[in-house]
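Example: Isoflavone reductase homolog IRL.
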Amino acid sequence: MPSAIKKVIVVGAGGHLGPHIVSAFDSDPRFEICILSRHSSKSTFPPHIPVHRVSDNYDETELVKICTGQDAIICTIAMQAIHQQKALINAAVKAGVKHFVPSEFGHDTRNDQAAEMLPQFYAAKRQIVAYLKSKEGDGLSWTAFVTGPFFEIAVSNFLGFDMEKRHATIVNHGTNCWSATTRSTIGLAVKNAMLSPESVANKYLFIESFNVSQRDTLAALEDLTAAKWNVTYHDAEEEKRLALEKLAKGNYSAIPVLMRYITCVKGYGGNYMDTDESANKLLSLPTESLHEALAGLARQD
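Written out as structure tokens, the predicted fold is:
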């Protein structure tokens, strides 16, 4: 059984999610937090948090030295660097680290239909979890978080809502529900999981801030803006067909369209709470208001 975790090192702390995870641990005096960053990284971090620099090729000797004495590694590195986690996992085992949280955050990568559509997003993450499973016997436990889309980014990025133009792109009738989580709640979930590592060891945890549909989101936005939005309805299958054709030609503008499809169409893992148990209660996550979260986004625009 994993014992208490106090010293935590965050990898990828300068990305979309990393700062929120750093903030959650930094605000809890039960943890000592530090950051691992590549020498070439231009990211800046809170001045009071120790930063360990490592060569860009993730040299194992350097990594073992940095990770020795750490209890847990939280990894939020970008999609294109997912494979580099193997070097971190090997170093974690050699350094005696107890727990590893891979950069899984997002859609449910175990969904085969979604994995077939976007293998470049799913296969690498699956391989990392399989690699972690192979290290359980070496004393390294792991926890992978399924969060759905990062709510604040996804709403206007690929879920179909243009705040500035007050325009919504709705897939089919927009009534299918999906899960999404705010980044601050993801940070809190990861931090709280490390308070009881034995209860989260070697498993996927499913969390959400909201379980809503595109219609729910549109209604909330119209209410907040006191305006009727323009709405375009798209046939999901036709949209998918065109996007896959684009992607086959190397046009990556198709990816957000396919992400919307995976999120909003039944059977692709967007509504994972249909089949999996929520870890919200286990991790003492707050009940959040869709209106408040959207109001924050509307203010930014």
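The chain has a mean pLDDT of 95.
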